[in-house]
Design a protein that fits this description.
Radius of gyration: 26 Å
CATH topology of the largest domain: TIM Barrel
EC number: 4.2.1.20
Shape: elongated
Number of domains: 3
GO molecular function: tryptophan synthase activity
Cofactor: pyridoxal 5'-phosphate
CATH superfamily of the largest domain: Aldolase class I
Strand order of the largest sheet: 5-4-3-2-1-9-8-7-6
Largest sheet: 9 strands, parallel
Pathway: Amino-acid biosynthesis; L-tryptophan biosynthesis; L-tryptophan from chorismate: step 5/5
CATH architecture of the largest domain: Alpha-Beta Barrel
Distance between the termini: 56 Å
Keywords: Amino-acid biosynthesis, Aromatic amino acid biosynthesis, Lyase, Pyridoxal phosphate, Tryptophan biosynthesis
CATH class of the largest domain: Alpha Beta
Strand content: 15-25%
Amino acid sequence: MASLLRAFSSCQSEGRAAAVVFTVAGYPTQDATIEILLAMQQGGIDIVELGIPCTDPIGDGPIIQDAHTVSIQTGTNFQTVLDIVGRARERGLVVPVVIMGYCNQVLQYGFERAVEEAAQVGVDGFLLADLPVIESSHFRTLCKKAGLSYIPVISPTMKDKRIELLCRAADTYLYVLSRMGVSGSAGEGVSLDKSVLSQFLRRLRHFCGKKPFALGLGVSTREQFLSMQDLAPGVVVGTQIIKIINGSQAEGELARAIRNYCMYLTGRSDVVSPVQLPLHNPTINPSADIACLAGEITLPSYFGPYGGQYVPELLLDSLGDLERCFVSALEDPNFWREYQNHLTGMISGPLQIKNGHDTSGHQVANVWLQEETSHGLHAAKRYRIYSTLGQILLACRLGKKCILAETTSEGDAIATTTLCARLGLCCVLFMGARDLKRFPGLSTHIDKLGGKLVSVGSGGQVVRDAVNTALQSWIADLHECHYVPGVAIGPHPFPTIIRTFQARFGDETWEEAISQIGKNPDAVVVGVAAGDAAVALVPGFMDIRGIDIVLLDHSGRVTTMSPGVFHGSHTELQQDKNGQVTRESDPQSHGYHSYPALEPELSHWVSSGKARVVSCDNGLNPSPDGSGLAGGWLVHAARELANQMRRGENILVIV
């Protein structure tokens, strides 16, 4: 922490901005990273931000994403990041080092262990993009005790109350975004002209006082550095370093190229040791931080230990606006009248439950099936239409003009685009390229409806990559756009909003079950994968005594999951010991069935025993529309369960 304060003090005494430069640890190799750090120091850099590689870095553009991928392939993890810092210190690295990355890799290592060992090897602070102040009280306390800095991120879209909070939480400096968007995506985000940026920075200075800040995103040349130097005590450069690494072959050439670029950037031909100036030590009051934000969240943000808001700080004002809008809409009869009016024509007909008894005579309990077999517009799952419509109407109330959503099926894509067209909204859908191959002609159909379907070719080209791209697009334009998740994933309040709108499906299913069976079913069976109907259905049956809630798990995926942070929430997910989210190994897996995490509420049911998970694999593949497990798979598994029940009991299967 002290080294960071001295770095800014030294730069201020010399009348220049601090040069803060980012690179990904382990890229192109772990040994090369040490040479890069030393070359940066030789080139006059004041502070280094060293990135922890991550499988899903939603705040980074494609150039840095590729560097993350290569780094992971070299075996780099949080432990090796610390080793790199320690070895670089032994080689003479004296400039401050800030570890930058995402929460889950540090969480899996253990917050206490991570902070303690980081301090031992000479790390000076942490910047974790998806660990906002409201979720970071424990981590910040650990950092303060160890003498490490916690560096908040501030964006131009933030409200004054949040800016004030973050300025209080910062103990050395703040990372300030000069524009909206992800790193290395100049021209794709919303840029601010210099006068608007200057106005925002005056507002920032009102709250941060003499506390320094570093301005980042979009800087690569000496001219841009000098332009930013007029505005900020520090300037951040990141993507350009990765580009230089990409263009260099031999390690010796790489070190020279990095050193020469840093000297060009800073305009410094002679590098001197930092001046030891008196330090100003701001105070931190974590309890006051949380108290300040307590009024921002109206609804419970967790389901047991799962949920929360693990997202970049710049999203929290938008999430707060969404929550307040949702709470208001719940009590507004006009909202529900509009909701019902738009629902007309979107649903193919009344929900139906039919007898699915095994004609062989060997089955013990009775099996009842609830399934939807319609096509075209009505092919969208009923419960997804309920939540998508509600979310789009909330977006209208928020004054948004464009809907962003991932999609995995033809029916959902058509339904979402149709709803947007009816309400006069732009609609941009994101589908993994692997999923899109199953729907020839869908892009043309969406175009005719007035929407746009983006084929996502990054990563595994499946739904998690579509979610990443949708979130990045939302970050780039929070003012005009609104993200609509297809299932109950993401940061609070998305899971609560989606399960509330989908609860109608559970109520309808219960009423139809009573009508057809004549009483409550003894067991309810539904798939456990994200995108199956569990979150929509189970709340309608959860509190009825005596009903066995069974979640069917294809190939035992849930047993391989462990708690972690993914796409904005703490949930159960498939990950390795280093906190890297793993990919579905089954090439037949697509749609939401390839999603590597459970919905947060579902994680709570499983861990608390409110529902039981049954793993089985009868060789059937996920459903063709990508909406979940194959109907035949579910029915077959349910009939096996029925044979374990008593004669005359009833089991309801949601296909």
